[in-house]
């Protein structure tokens, strides 16, 4: 019975298919001409940069004996929320909870902005639930060609938080203010 002869091509274990063998291989790369190295890159995100903008570090990526170093490209992705603020293009949006007393009598409160400075919220009249105040120039920085020239707006929507219960002296005081007698119910004629 005749035997079979097979032939296969495999990569050379000595040269790795390069056709050359390094006689005195270093102890770091063992003749592969490459070593793994970690490095840190400082990424400076300037105020007002938008989602999707890219910061490129030329020549800071992988390199090898047969090719030049590539670039590291950092693509910005916005954090969905920074505290209570939401970003939409150059504008910021937030909600602010106030009590019934503030909604009826007005208020002056201070809230921290994303960058650390305080913003004064002031209302002197009745504030309806869902009312939105526009605070000009307190939004995101507006950048053109790397230069900041103004800011967008901050929109504050008020949520009126009612107490869970009203009883005792508070109930009596509210009945007196609203002209209701204890135990009576208002009827709506228009219904």
TrEMBL record:
Q: Which GO terms describe its molecular function?
A: Hsp70 protein binding; unfolded protein binding
Instruction: Name it.
Output: Chaperone DnaJ C-terminal domain-containing protein
**SUPFAM superfamilies associated with the record:** DnaJ/Hsp40 cysteine-rich domain (SSF57938), HSP40/DnaJ peptide-binding domain (SSF49493)
Task: Pinpoint the Chaperone DnaJ C-terminal domain residues.
Answer: 29-163
Tell me which Gene Ontology terms the entry assigns under biological process: protein folding
Q: Show the InterPro entries listed in the entry.
A: DnaJ_C, DNJA1/2-like, HSP40/DnaJ_pept-bd, HSP_DnaJ_Cys-rich_dom, HSP_DnaJ_Cys-rich_dom_sf
Q: Which residues form a coiled coil?
A: none
């Amino acid at each position: 019975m005749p035997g079979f002869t097979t032939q296969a091509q495999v990569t050379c274990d000595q040269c790795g298919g390069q056709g050359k063998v390094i006689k005195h291989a270093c102890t770091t790369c063992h003749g592969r001409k490459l070593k793994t190295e970690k490095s840190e890159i400082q990424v400076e995100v300037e105020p007002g940069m938008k989602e999707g903008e890219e910061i490129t570090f030329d020549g800071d990526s992988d390199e090898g004996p047969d090719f030049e170093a590539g670039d590291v490209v950092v693509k910005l992705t916005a954090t969905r929320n920074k505290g209570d603020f939401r970003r939409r293009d150059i504008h910021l949006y937030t909600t602010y909870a106030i009590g019934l007393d503030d909604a009826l009598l007005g208020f002056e409160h201070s809230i921290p902005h994303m960058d650390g400075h305080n913003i004064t919220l002031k209302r002197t009249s009745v504030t309806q639930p869902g009312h939105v105040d526009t605070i000009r120039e307190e939004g995101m920085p507006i950048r053109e060609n790397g230069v900041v020239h103004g800011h967008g707006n901050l929109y504050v929507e008020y949520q009126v938080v009612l107490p869970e219960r009203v009883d005792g002296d508070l109930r009596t005081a509210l009945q007196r203010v609203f002209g209701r007698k204890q135990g009576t119910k208002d009827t709506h004629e228009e219904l």
